[in-house]
Structure prediction request, 217 residues.
Amino acid sequence: MRIKRLSKFGEKLLLLEVVMFVNIIRKMHLNKYEYSIEQDDSVSAEVSFDYGILLRRITSNGNNIKYTMKQNNWLLKILMVIPKIFIPIDLFPKYNIFLDEKIIGKTKVAFCTPKREIMIDNSLYEIYLHSNNYISIMKDDVQIALIKKSVLTIGEQNRYDVDFDYITEKDKVFVLLMVAFIDVVFFPNRLRFNAVKYEKTIGKDKMAHRTLWQSKK
Prediction:
């Protein structure tokens, strides 16, 4: 964290320039995943398991801020049980996104693509899966975060290294929500427990330049 003190019209103005790099760990429990930031217990997130036709719920909260993502259509969830050869669609049914109890956005249906789109408060967020387990997050075509999942997972503890522009506590709670969402969408384990697991995304990356991004210094 860097702090600058400026003077404007004889008054002191405190300007915070914050660069945030965190490690997020996922742990598997009997009925949910839990996510936490190493050496920071002020925020946490969890994802309920979606057995069969149960709708998934993702929550992230801390410092009196709570984000929730809820799948919103039982019928579409039932259709997802049909073998994917008949329904080449993921992220279906869509999620509604809430801040506290107020709905602020929703996901878009994705058709066999490495990106996921979310509309929140009239802004378009794009989450893009790159090669080598990199994930970028864009907001209205401006990159705001770069995430990398570890290749090796031991005891179902996925690890994510996250670099993002941090301004308020709400940003930290939000980025934890996004990591939980990324984990279950891009790296699902189908409710299996693996003592050791190796995962690495490969293939041509049309947006590889995003993996060089760094938060504002």
